[in-house]
Design goal:
Layout: H1 3-15, H2 18-24, H3 29-43, E1 48-51, E2 54-57, H4 59-85, E3 93-98, H5 99-103, H6 106-113, E4 119-124, H7 126-134, E5 140-145, E6 158-172, E7 189-194, H8 199-211, E8 217-223, H9 226-234, E9 239-243, H10 244-252, E10 257-258, E11 266-275, H11 281-290
Parallel strand pairs: 3-4, 3-5, 7-8, 7-9
Antiparallel strand pairs: 1-2, 5-11, 6-9, 6-10, 6-11
């Protein structure tokens, strides 16, 4: 049995599609399928079943999943801990951060809280950052968070502390008179949307559903990057909801303006998450500062 097989299994359990899972693992679909079958032979049970909607975990696969998630995460953490003891990593702080906060919040915050430590920043979508944390590839996750949205890290295996606040605000290009080119009282507004793997998009729609807010939107573009949506809004492609921390400079410069009043704003927290297991000395020191100790 190989560690690659377990990572293949976790990827297919997330994607529920052989083609997408093979693409994420950077191997051909036939080779990926052979590795899944090899794992099933090693386990002695069928782990996946074919359905009309794609691929689903079998009852045995559901049981196996819980153990594999913990095992793979602990293996990566064990390697990291061993390297830190051997001083082969140079005691680097490894932080996974969502794209929007990597651009706006992280640089100032990390300089204030860990100014002299070497930092390894891994920037990606929320979904990808959560995978890094689950597999022990980062000690911390910096992300936006909302109480209505349950994430894969909201378990007893992880801790979370709020370290800031932000707003998701609807913005668009101004017209020649400085007024919004589109407003949310129009019949149909071109919408620059987040793709499914984006945590911000999931937060936004959870908040709209909870408050009964239904803006009249027609999706014209999707991206997992708030910065990409902001750039498209600046160019006049439509209305986007982006973190105020990211949009503030463009708002101040008059490149964009608000497309609606405060009714359509979503309050979000900025949080730092970590595993409950012990971290390196410098990681524990950063956590202590983040918690106000």
């Amino acid at each position: 049995m190989h560690l690659d097989w377990l990572e293949d299994f976790l990827t297919l359990a997330e994607e529920r599609n052989f083609s997408r899972a093979a693409q994420r693992r950077n191997i051909t679909q036939p080779a990926f399928g052979r590795r899944i079958r090899s794992l099933e032979q090693w386990v002695g049970a069928t782990l996946f079943t074919r359905t009309t909607a794609g691929t689903a975990l079998s009852p045995a696969g559901e049981t196996f999943l819980g153990y594999v998630q913990v095992s793979v995460r602990d293996l990566y953490r064990a390697r990291t801990s061993a390297l830190e003891v051997a001083d082969q990593t140079g005691a680097v702080l490894t932080v996974a951060a969502t794209h929007a906060l990597s651009f706006s919040f992280f640089p100032h915050w990390i300089v204030e809280h860990a100014p002299h430590e070497p930092i390894n920043l891994k920037s990606d979508s929320l979904q990808a950052c959560e995978r890094m944390m689950q597999r022990g590839e980062a000690s911390f996750l910096l992300s936006h968070h909302h109480q209505l949205l349950q994430t894969s890290l909201d378990t007893r295996d992880f801790l979370r502390v709020e370290i800031g606040s932000d707003l998701l605000v609807p913005i668009c290009q101004p017209d020649g008179a400085g007024q919004p080119r589109w407003t949310l009282d129009q019949a149909e507004v071109p919408y620059l949307a987040y793709s499914p793997e984006s945590g911000l998009g999931r937060i936004l729609h959870a908040d709209w559903a909870a408050r009964g807010v239904k803006p009249p939107l027609a999706t014209v573009l999707q991206s997992r990057l708030a910065a990409a949506l902001l750039s498209m809004a600046v160019d006049g492609a439509g209305v986007a909801w982006v973190p105020l921390s990211l949009a503030s400079s463009a708002l101040a410069a008059g490149k964009i303006t608000y497309a609606a009043d405060e009714t359509y704003r979503t309050e979000i927290a900025i949080t730092l998450a970590r595993p409950t297991t012990s971290l390196s000395k410098i990681s524990e020191a950063l956590w202590s500062v983040a918690c106000g100790n």
